[in-house]
Write a structure and sequence with these properties.
Blueprint (H helix, E strand, L loop, with lengths): L5 H22 L14 H32 L3 H118 L4 H135 L6 H24 L16 H8 L3 H4 L2 H25 L3 H31 L11
Amino acid sequence: MFKKTRAELQSDRHDLELLMQAMDQAIGGQYDDIDVSSFADPAYGRKFNELIHALKRSNNKVVMRLNEAMQLIGDNSFVKNTMDQVQSQSESISAMNEAGQNLEASIDNISTGMAHIRDNAHAMLSIMQDSTANMNDSIRVVSESSEKISAINVQVQHFQEKIQKIGEIVDIVKKVSSQSSLLALNASIEAARAGTAGRGFSVVAEQVRLLSSNTSSSAEDIVRYVSELTRDIGELAQSMNDTTIILGQGNEKLQDSLKNTEKVSGQMLEISDKVDNIFSDIDMQSSVTRDFTKQVSSISQSYEELGRDCLAQGVHEYKCSRYIDNVRSDMVRGFSAVTLQDWMKVYEIDHFILLWRVYNNAVGFEQLKLAQLNRPEKCKLGLWLSSQTDPKITGCSEFTALKSAHFELHRLATESWKAKDGGDEALALEYFNKAYDAFSKYSSAIKAMQNRLSQLGYREETRTKG
């Protein structure tokens, strides 16, 4: 066995101290390569660097599995769909609740209206019954009047017969007057023959003549008066007959009206009964509608609670995803040796997470800062894009397409943030949906860039399966 010289021992001690320092740095989280030229025996430094590289490579699977996990955990589409469904159902329930309240108010109005209709129907039925009674009274009065007019008409007929008798008597008086006048004339003639002896008889004859003349004149007046009276009584009789006919026709119409009124009264009675039944049904429906409105209101409150639960679940999932994302980011930056192909996957998931953080910001799960969105050149991919100098990479169409898709995704994310900051959540979600569509183009651009890098020789990537 050979003993080491003092110089060799000092060299070993020096290299050991450098290794201890390098290990302390690794323990402190610094995993950079150490300078092997400072070692007396560079093999020690190279071996330490190999150890660090091996450890980093061993973490590549962990990093990429975390990357894949973030794709699943960071995907809030389930929460979004649930919240959208809850929101949609909540709006539907709210609309149903409002409709129920409107229906309740409408039924109350209908109930009030039906109450008025019921009262009016009852009042109308009472009026119809009173009208029926009044029409019966009218028919009785008309019938009695018709009978009285008929009796008067009979008396008028008798009176006409008596007037005719008076006419006959007047004819006799006229004949007597004529005979008296003839007798007075003969008496005057005889008195003239008698001379002085017949003067007294002549005076008598003159008186008889005057009486006959007055009687004849009176008879003519009586005839004229009787004629006028006969005409007037005839007109009265005709009027009485006409009145009797009209009263008879009116009585028939009253009878018809009475029948119609009784029919309408019966119909009104049926209507009144139906209105009463409808009013009872409406009153029952009003009670059912109130219960329904209360149940809908209770369901609405349940959906509000469900919405709050979904929001809390979303916040919880966001916090979990941020914790895992921080672990992934720390490992990918420090204690790993991921390949360029691996980095492309990281860049894709980074922006997938960014997309859903935009959604989180829009619905209130978290509050992003504008600088996290409007500076695409400062994110991992932005730094890589700006650091490339190889014309084979920067000159390809895939590189240009990736830059454009990357910029558009950040632009839409920024617009969503601005809309949310302005208090317009609906517009913020609208821009999120546009960003969601833009991410599909971005993801396709990443895959196209991976294919181009593979063609350029960058084929190595970490396999997480098998």
